[in-house]
Amino acid sequence: MKTDDAFPEPIGGYAVGRTQMDVEYTASDHSKRELTAFVYYPSDSSEGKTTSTYMFSEVYEMLNDQPLVTEYLKKKDFFSIDIKTQCYDDLALSGKEKRYPVLFYVCGGGGSPEWGTVICTDLASMGYIVVSIGHQNSTMYKRKDGRLFNVSKDFSDVIMAFSEDPEMLALAGKMEMRPNDETAIEMCHNVLTLPILAKLTEYSELQTEDVRYVADYLYKLDSGELNSSFKGRLLLDIGMGIVGHSYGGPTSAIVCREDDRFTCGIGLDSGAFGLLDSDLKKPFLLLFCEPNYNMNAIIGANNSMETYYFSVERVAHLDYCDIVFTSVNEELRGERDAMEMRNLVTDYTKNFFDHYLLQKAASVESLAYDGVDLIKKTSNK
Predict the structure, then answer these.
(1) What crossing angle do the helices spanning 293-302 and 181-192 adopt, rounded to 10°?
(2) What distance in Å separates the CA atoms of residue 363 and residue 381, rounded to the nearest whole number?
(3) Which of 250, 245, 217, 267 is closest to 102 using CA atoms?
(4) Measured between alpha carbons, how far is residue 83 from residues 51, 53, 86, 333, 364 in Å?
(5) CA distances from 364 to 219, 223, 345, 351 (A)
(6) Distance of CA 349 to the CA centre of its chain
(7) d(CA 124, CA 87)
(8) Which SUPFAM superfamilies match (predicted)?
């Protein structure tokens, strides 16, 4: 049963503003992509303002029409949207700094861009501007223009086909907890060469195009080519960072591989779809529950820059997003306290970006949480 009435107070010292933008473009497959993006950012004051709505009720109701979710949970209660956020719509951008660094957040497949509200709010409260995109066909969202977009049947079918694929199930049955590197890399290779992965990877690549297009859009906002309060306020010359949960993790890695404007990336309990023979050439961090090393070991094997693998005990897959606070189904949660899990994810994320993006002395290896182990750090320079 859900016991939280509000998300935790942000860790940082800034008030947090949130604004929504609609964008559209034509992708490489000639499809028209109609997206939305929530932008969380540091502000100096929220006095007199009412907190932002967590998730639009119309978006939540679309879960009933989403085969991926309703079949997986068999009509059980999933999560609640009756919770107070700690961000505020359309505040003024803080004047404490001339420019602020930029991060992207990518939610899991079938989710919504609001599912990362806690981590996005935390990072914004510590001086980052964070962009969370609604990806057409693979997530659900309401655009600012009022139109609703649900997960497509094709994407749901692809995800379900992958989860039910006999070859995938056979491999999953052989996955070891804490496998040695050679075993994990071989297993990951076997997963990534399954024929069922081809279609799944296409969606990851489309999400990657979405991120790159929205990054282009931000550059136009900063330059003043497009009018906005972000003109001259985005710290883009140091690069950008990106973090993705679950299906959003491979998107984060592909973005790092494909776009040199992105300096580093993070995958939260994610796999390596589309990354079979990829050198990311960027620092990358993976936080995951075992036996997930079997699903992403190939990233570090190929990456010429630092790759960190942290195994986290006593957690469930959805503990890495807002459901750690909004869940109404105990079966979806791990054993860690919700606040501890939030602190853990925020600490690793912030320290990683502070070090690799802002060039601060922060270190993920210096963090100490019970049951969180650095099982591998690679660099193939």
Answers:
(1) 100
(2) 20
(3) 217
(4) 10, 9, 10, 18, 31
(5) 30, 34, 11, 6
(6) 11
(7) 9
(8) alpha/beta-Hydrolases
Q: Are 362 and 351 in contact (CB under 8 A)?
A: yes
Digit-by-digit pLDDT tens for the chain (381 residues) are 456 799 999 999 999 999 999 999 999 999 999 999 999 999 999 998 999 999 999 999 888 777 766 555 555 667 889 999 999 999 999 999 999 999 999 999 989 999 999 999 999 999 999 999 999 999 999 999 999 999 999 999 999 899 999 999 999 999 999 899 999 999 999 999 999 999 999 999 999 999 999 999 999 999 999 999 999 999 999 999 999 999 999 999 999 999 999 999 999 999 999 999 889 999 999 999 999 999 999 999 999 999 999 999 999 999 999 999 998 888 888 999 999 999 999 999 999 999 999 999 989 999 999 999 998 888 876
| Residue 193: both structure tokens together | 């060469």
Q: Do the Cβ atoms of 246 and 253 come closer than 8 Å?
A: no
224: Cβ contacts below 8 Å, ≥ 6 apart = 231, 232
Distance CA 194, CA 177 (A): 22
Q: Which CATH code, of 3.40.1190.20, 3.40.50.1820, 2.120.10.30, 3.40.50.700, is assigned to 15-378?
A: 3.40.50.1820
Amino acid letter for position 80: S
Q: Is the backbone of residue 314 left (phi > 0), alpha (psi -120 to 50) or beta?
A: left
- The rounded distance, in Å, linking the Cα atoms of 137 and 147 is 14
* Tokens of residue 186, six digits: 């071989």
- State how far the Cα of 348 lies from the Cα of 367, in Å rounded to an integer: 8
DSSP for 21-59, please give it: EEEEEE-TTS-EEEEEEEEEEEES--TTPPBPPSS-HHH
DSSP of 136-154, one letter per residue? Answer: TTTS-EE-TTS-EE---HH
